[in-house]
Design goal:
The protein has 96 residues and is of the alpha+beta class. The protein has one domain: GIY-YIG endonuclease (3-Layer(aba) Sandwich). It contains four helices and three strands; from the N terminus they run E-E-H-H-E-H-H. A three-stranded antiparallel sheet has the order 2-1-3, sandwiched between helices. A hairpin with a 6-residue loop joins strand 1 and strand 2. The longest helix has 13 residues. The protein is globular, with a radius of gyration of 12 Å.
Amino acid sequence: MAAYVYILASKRNGTLYIGATSNLLRRVSEHRDGLAGGFTRKYGIKMLVYFEELESIIAAIQREKTLKHWVRRWKLNLIEANNPEWRDLWDDVGHG
């Protein structure tokens, strides 16, 4: 079953959040609606700026842990290599 690792941002070069989920649409929707609580709600982190599909939730969690250990510049480079304009990818994931 596919799973995802994703990066949310408060704005371009803003505060980042990295997560893993088996349901990208539901989880990002929870963040956007303020239902996820905690860090993302506190800092207004709602823009989906990066995501990867992996083969399992175990692989997604491992990738999440790896990305969380990266220095900030590497994370920014990953986002900019795939999304140079820092567009909110929410519309690209098929919700609307």
